[in-house]
Amino acid sequence: MVCAPASSGDVIDHIGSGSLKLINRRFHMGNTPDRILDKRSRLPTHIKEKKPVNAPT
Fold it and tell me: How many Å apart are CA 31 and CA 27, to the nearest integer?
């Protein structure tokens, strides 16, 4: 049985340098659903405004 590495440096050594790109993607994807839901909730408000704050002139 293999135990999980103790620190983040050990994680990188354990996984190897070839998959660091995949690790970064997984960390960033963890925030993606929150961002999508946040933008989705603000979009109807933005559309309903007569002159949206961020609208191009």
Answer: 7
Task: Specify whether the CB–CB gap between 15 and 23 falls below 8 A.
Answer: yes
Round to the nearest angstrom and report the end-to-end CA distance of the chain. 62
Please give the model's pTM, rounded to 2 decimal places: 0.26
> Would you list the DSSP string of 4-47?
PPSSHHHHHHHH-GGGHHHHHHHHHHHHHHHHHHHHHHHHHHHH
Q: What is the mean pLDDT of each run of 10 residues along the chain (57 residues)?
A: 52 57 66 72 69 68
